[in-house]
Amino acid sequence: MVQTDVMAQDGVEKKVEVFKNKNFLYLFISSLMSAPGYYVYIMGAEWLMLSITDNRFFFGLLFISASIPRLLFLSVGGVLADRVEKKVILFLTDITRSFFVFLVLLLIVTDLIQAWHLILLAGLFGISDAFSYPTTDSLTAELLNEHELQRGNSLIQMTKQVSPILGPVLGGSLIYFIGFTGVFTVAFVMLAIASLTVWRVKIQASEQEEIKESAFADFKKGIQYIKANQLLQSIMIMGFVVNFFVAGPLSMGIPILVKDVFQENALALTILQVSLGVGAILGSIILSIRKDFKKPGRVLLTSLTIFGVLYALTGFAFHLYLNALLIFVAAICLQFINIPLVTLIQRTTDKKMIGKMMSMLMMVSTGLVPVSFLVTSILMAFQIQITQIMICGGIVTNYSLYISLPIKN
């Protein structure tokens, strides 16, 4: 098993600053460049698509083209993360992303850019995501000691939470002041820096068994590993419930609440979106600066209970500012669910299986987000109000407590 140079001494409190671990620092800086750089590109690609064609079907394909390959290749990415040196995977994903952005730059400069170019590149970015997501979490577990995992996961998660806020703000500003060439140049530089930084991670050689099984057999072994572990089964179910019943209704519900229920303008939408983003960031910061929970399972389930109640109350749409407060606190609770979930997997899973387990969690949670959007859209097409969907989602989230009792122990 790979270990960092900083080890807890006997009789001394196991509290080590993760930034003293130079290898984790490189991973953190890489994530700090990669995640926002990716969102800068996304902002540029979305606005460019709207600028070069009036066909909004193509704009929708931009999201679908990224989502489907991501879902299809997540399991492959998890298997690969357990078979190949992880920093190599992250280096290749970031350097190929920067290459894709460079291609967009060339097409813009030569005035050859077309809608299908952006759709194709969105699919390639989706494939890259499928390899990057499970590998980042798996490498975090490899670089840090067990008692550092909560802080490390919180910091990595924080870069992901900052990105949807910082990326569009930076991307939109760059488009306004220096145009598409400027925004894609910045995205290219950020992704290139991310790839070069993660390459500096030094991993001590570990004893590894010779890999004789095929990738498919390795994937089946991951499924069997989950079937034999009741805790992992509960984690997977909880990850599915929280994302499937929350992601689509909440993302679609916020704009609809502002427009149809509160009958407010874009400023009101910004207030709710910022409440969600700031709450998520604050939750990550809190977890990154406090010591490990002695009973993380209890904290996770308590947070899930509070989140379910707040989410259901949001559906009642009492008042704009009250909803902003509910969403803010719910976002904090969501981090107290997501980060301990990842940490539990890292702590209780065989090191050789972490990559596969992280990809499985991504598949049943993040990977199914497009399905959540689809189901929410279908329900609304049958005249079911978004407020009703959100209230039911909160109830189902709390009901998942009954199937998550192994986590408590």
TrEMBL record:
InterPro entries attached to this UniProt entry: MFS_dom, MFS_trans_sf, TM_effector
SUPFAM superfamilies noted in UniProt: MFS general substrate transporter (SSF103473)
Domain called Major facilitator superfamily (MFS) profile: residue spans: 23-409
Keyword field: Cell membrane, Membrane, Transmembrane, Transmembrane helix, Transport
Compartment(s): Cell membrane
Source organism, top-level taxon: Bacteria
Pfam families tied to this protein: MFS_3 (PF05977)
Membrane topology designation: Multi-pass membrane protein
Keyword Transferase: no
GO cellular component terms attached to this protein's record: plasma membrane
Residue ranges crossing the lipid bilayer per the database entry: 24-45, 57-80, 100-127, 174-199, 231-254, 266-287, 299-318, 324-345, 357-380, 386-405
Gene3D superfamilies assigned to the protein according to its UniProt record, in alphabetical order: MFS general substrate transporter like domains (1.20.1250.20)
GO-annotated molecular function: transmembrane transporter activity
Name under which the protein is recorded: MFS transporter
Organism encoding this protein: Salinibacillus xinjiangensis
